[in-house]
Amino acid sequence: MASAKSPEDVRRLAREGTLTGPTSGQAHGFTQANLVILPREHAFPFLLFCQRNPRPCPVLEVTEPGDPVPRRYAPTADLRTDLPCYRVWRNGELAGEPTDITDLWRDDFVSFLIGCSFTFESALLEAGLPVRHIEQDCNVPMYRTSIACTPAPPFAGNLVVSMRPFLPAQAIQAIQITSRFPAVHGAPVHFGDPAQIGIEDLGRPDFGDPVEIHPGETPVFWACGVTPQVALMQARLPLVITHSPGCMFVTDRRDAELAGI
Amino acid sequence: MASAKSPEDVRRLAREGTLTGPTSGQAHGFTQANLVILPREHAFPFLLFCQRNPRPCPVLEVTEPGDPVPRRYAPTADLRTDLPCYRVWRNGELAGEPTDITDLWRDDFVSFLIGCSFTFESALLEAGLPVRHIEQDCNVPMYRTSIACTPAPPFAGNLVVSMRPFLPAQAIQAIQITSRFPAVHGAPVHFGDPAQIGIEDLGRPDFGDPVEIHPGETPVFWACGVTPQVALMQARLPLVITHSPGCMFVTDRRDAELAGI
């Protein structure tokens, strides 16, 4: 997982077109973020949706309209070029997956950087806890739940969760550790019976890959950053741009800075 | 301080015009909140100012435009009548202090409920820590600092802090306790030398009343909810409505629910 590259190195490789795939393990120790870009007219209800649903939508930074520079999390970066891959959504449908969005940029675009579970996974690994999807070298399994988010019209939808299996004593430690990171989803929302939150089959995640659950382990569920993406798609806005799955924005802040206590 | 009245009792007394003064000590154990009401056109930059300055501006709830009901924190309340006293600001100047704002209400008004230090003071008192301004039965002393908030145009300004003196061991405990309450200002921002944050004379607060500092005690400074009010006044918007100092909105949520960990 570890990489000696700096955040600026990773962003430069993305800008040059050399890095077009996932950023997992890049610039180890630095915070990676989900990206959502919207026209100004939709920025208030989207920020409100995030304020009302802070577990799945922990906002790290919101840029000024038209400004592609995240001045607090990476003042030398350019959000139009510095991610490996983007997704362009028109009327809720995927309309393209470019590696640069300079030609699509508009003066009324507002960018949201949203916390990502990579941050707390680093803390779990440093505490010696096993993180199954990292052990299996695949994506974390994610599931749609029956838990409704608090709407902020036109944004609404159900909570999406990620799952990591742990032995009970490990799960308790994982709850303690992730509680310290409210800016990146914080404590879990559920553990144990998946049916209680509307998940039918852990072996068939809605996003990502299935992972093994060993004897004695309990599935533990965290609010997931895919939740705002689902709410965005359901709102069928004329134009939204996001990062491509796994191709996050690498910031200049350290994961440890995000620890709340 | 304690009161057997329910939040609904306190709100009804305010609505009827029986309670027109401070809410400190009313509906003990329930969260009280600062109120800011703005036209929709200013709601996005103000929410952004709060997002960028979460210590002084911890947003508890934002209502839908035109809706006077805080549906998450007190679904049976009416923000136009249920505070003891309001302040109406026109172009940054105080233009009135009514006990009811029904006649001023507009379809484009958005209301913000912002966390208040009463919540963490309850936790400090329950831990047996002395809270000097409560002992002296006066308002907490508050000071303008030299620390600039992160602007969100048209909103900008310096941080305002409240001060409570403690012995060092008490201060450490107070840091631990308030860290658990990020939704109501969280951990302190400074302790010790007031000059380091631009405060000239602790005996002359900019807001509230001075308090005694006993031998061996250190002043401890927390981000204060007056900060967004100062930013609002400086922006000189045509119309803003806030609560009158000390006359807070009493919610149905318990202080203990706001503990982050």
Automatic annotation (TrEMBL), chains A, B:
It comes from the Bacteria. Gene3D superfamilies: PSTPO5379-like (3.40.1640.10), PSTPO5379-like domain (3.30.2040.10). Coiled coil: none annotated. Keywords: Lyase. GO terms for molecular function: lyase activity. InterPro entries: D-Glu_cyclase (IPR009906), Putative_hydro-lyase (IPR038021), UPF0317 (IPR016938). It holds the Pfam family D-Glu_cyclase. HAMAP family: Hydro_lyase. Belongs to the D-glutamate cyclase family. This is Hydro-lyase. The lineage of its organism: Bacteria, Pseudomonadati, Planctomycetota, Planctomycetia, Planctomycetales.
